[in-house]
Amino acid sequence: MCFIEENTQIKPFKQMVKNWKASYLSQVDDNGGNEYLVKDFWEEIEESILPYVEGASFARWAFQQVKDLETLIKEIESNGLSIEMIITEPR
């Protein structure tokens, strides 16, 4: 399989992870107690996508998305930022 074909096959899975990440981010309570969102996000990726996608690079990318969600949640909780403020910031 060539790199271009692999990229095309992985693209829908990456979009799915991005959509889930946005959904979990929209559920953040700025009062705290959001650790379960990070855990649930990783479990969803682990159960619904990773069994169907081969390659360590995708797993690393997906794990980075989980870590990014965790960071964003901490920013919201500690700084009182709104989701809209974070989404509009360039990353």
Structural key phrases:
single chain; 91 residues; mainly alpha
- Tell me the helix content: over 70%
In total, how many beta strands?
A: 0
Strand content: under 5%
Number of domains: 1
Count of DSSP-assigned helices:
4
Mean pLDDT: 86
Please identify the structural class as seen in this structure.
mainly alpha
- How would you describe the shape? elongated
Question: Sheet bearing the most strands, described?
Answer: none
Order of helices and strands: HHHH
Radius of gyration: 14 Å
How far from one another are the termini?
Answer: 32 Å
Question: Low-confidence spans: pLDDT under 50, at least 5 residues?
Answer: 1-5
Account of the 3D structure:
This protein is an all-alpha fold and 91 residues long. The protein has one domain (17-25, 32-88). 75% of the residues lie in helices and 0% in strands. The chain starts with a helix and ends with a helix. The model is unreliable at 1-5 (pLDDT under 50).
Give a concise summary.
It contains four helices and no strands. The chain is mostly helical and 91 residues long. It is elongated.
